[in-house]
């Protein structure tokens, strides 16, 4: 799935920026570093972190249905009525999801600043 999104982000690059860098004598490396990467980094970061976040959530759900992982620990603790462990595992899952949300916002803001600098 990520490959398709990455390919679409690369296809949406403004060709005028690349032509402008080449017209001013820019090397292929400069075209990539100053024309391509600032344009696609926001999409790459957003989609990568989003998929990682989804994978964390899926790991918890798959564990609940018996595939192992952190969801299995939650089920195991609830079956033996170890509610302190249930709370602990739930807080770990919640903490991972919240930290991914903060990481996503931080990286998105940072990539938007880089993209804005590259555009000006």
TrEMBL record:
<dbReference type="Pfam" id="PF00528">
    <property type="entry name" value="BPD_transp_1"/>
</dbReference>
<keyword id="KW-0813">Transport</keyword>
<feature type="transmembrane region" description="Helical">
    <location>
        <begin position="56"/>
        <end position="75"/>
    </location>
</feature>
<dbReference type="InterPro" id="IPR000515">
    <property type="entry name" value="MetI-like"/>
</dbReference>
<comment type="similarity">
    <text>Belongs to the binding-protein-dependent transport system permease family.</text>
</comment>
<protein>
    <submittedName>
        <fullName>Phosphonate ABC transporter</fullName>
    </submittedName>
</protein>
<dbReference type="InterPro" id="IPR035906">
    <property type="entry name" value="MetI-like_sf"/>
</dbReference>
<keyword id="KW-1003">Cell membrane</keyword>
<feature type="domain" description="ABC transmembrane type-1">
    <location>
        <begin position="1"/>
        <end position="104"/>
    </location>
</feature>
<dbReference type="GO" id="GO:0055085">
    <property type="term" value="P:transmembrane transport"/>
</dbReference>
<keyword id="KW-0812">Transmembrane</keyword>
<dbReference type="GO" id="GO:0005886">
    <property type="term" value="C:plasma membrane"/>
</dbReference>
<feature type="transmembrane region" description="Helical">
    <location>
        <begin position="87"/>
        <end position="107"/>
    </location>
</feature>
<keyword id="KW-0472">Membrane</keyword>
<feature type="transmembrane region" description="Helical">
    <location>
        <begin position="31"/>
        <end position="50"/>
    </location>
</feature>
<keyword id="KW-1133">Transmembrane helix</keyword>
